[in-house]
Amino acid sequence: MRVISHPSPATSVSTPQKRRLRGIFRARQGSAIVEMAFGLPILFLILTGIFAFSIALYQKLQLAEAISVGGRYLAVDRGDTDPCASAASKVYAAAPGMTKSSLTLNFTINGVPTGPSCPGSAGSANPNMVSGANAQISASYPCTLKFYGDSASAVCSVKAAVVEVIQ
Q1: Would you list the domain boundaries of the chain?
Q2: Is 74 exposed, middle or buried (0-12, 13-18, 19+ CB in 10 A)?
Q3: Are 166 and 84 in contact (CB under 8 A)?
Q4: How far from the centroid of its chain's Cα atoms is residue 127's Cα?
Q5: Degrees, nearest 5: CA angle 53-57-58
Q6: Cα-flanking dihedrals φ and ψ of residue 107, to 5°?
Q7: Distance (Å, rounded) from C-alpha 138 to C-alpha 105?
Q8: Which helix (H) or strand (E) element contains residue 107?
Q9: Cα–Cα distance between 162 and 103 in angstroms, integer?
Q10: What number of other Cβ atoms are within 10 A of residue 142's Cβ?
């Protein structure tokens, strides 16, 4: 009867095979750099998009908070000769990161659109500022989503509106 012996795992690989495996492992050492060279630009593109959209989202939240402050002020400012101008100054003060000239405000008091201002006649209070009526402020602000300089940018507009009951 013939006995077949199997070589042990340590002696199963011959010397030429070891040399060939070492060459394969050396070739794989640079593959991480190549994979990183392909992966990093894609990762940076995604991160840049996230950062650009976060700036626009920050502007939207800042505008919404400023409009809310202006709406609360407008709702309790019945005796003022131009309550819309006073509310607009509150909005501008609550949004210091926004350019005042780029911010577009529109007021609607008791269902009557007044535009950016709502003075009363001959220095008196606005007749539409009636207790229990609605006062609405709507605003828009232009934003630009820049990805890589001016070559890849998109123009957008953030908008916010609030309706308060006049006290």
Answers
A1: 17-165
A2: buried
A3: no
A4: 39
A5: 115
A6: -115, 140
A7: 6
A8: strand 104-109
A9: 15
A10: 14
User: What's residue 31's pLDDT?
Assistant: 78
Both tokens of 133, joined, read 């009526």
Residue-wise DSSP of 30-45 = THHHHHHHHHHHHHHH
Q: From CA 45, how far away is CA 49, in angstroms rounded?
A: 6
Q: What pLDDT sits at residue 70?
A: 95
Please measure the distance between the N-terminal and C-terminal CA atoms of the chain and give it in whole angstroms. Answer: 109
Q: How many CB atoms lie within 10 A of CB 135?
A: 32
Residue with tokens 């976060």: 54
Q: Give the span between the Cα atoms of 59 and 62, in whole angstroms.
A: 5
- CB 101: neighbour CB atoms within 10 A? 6
Overall residue count recorded for the chain in this entry: 167
Query: Tens of pLDDT along the chain (167 residues)?
Result: 566 655 555 555 567 777 776 666 665 667 788 888 999 999 998 998 898 889 889 999 999 999 999 999 999 988 888 899 999 999 999 999 999 999 999 999 989 898 888 887 777 788 888 889 999 999 999 987 776 666 556 788 999 999 999 98
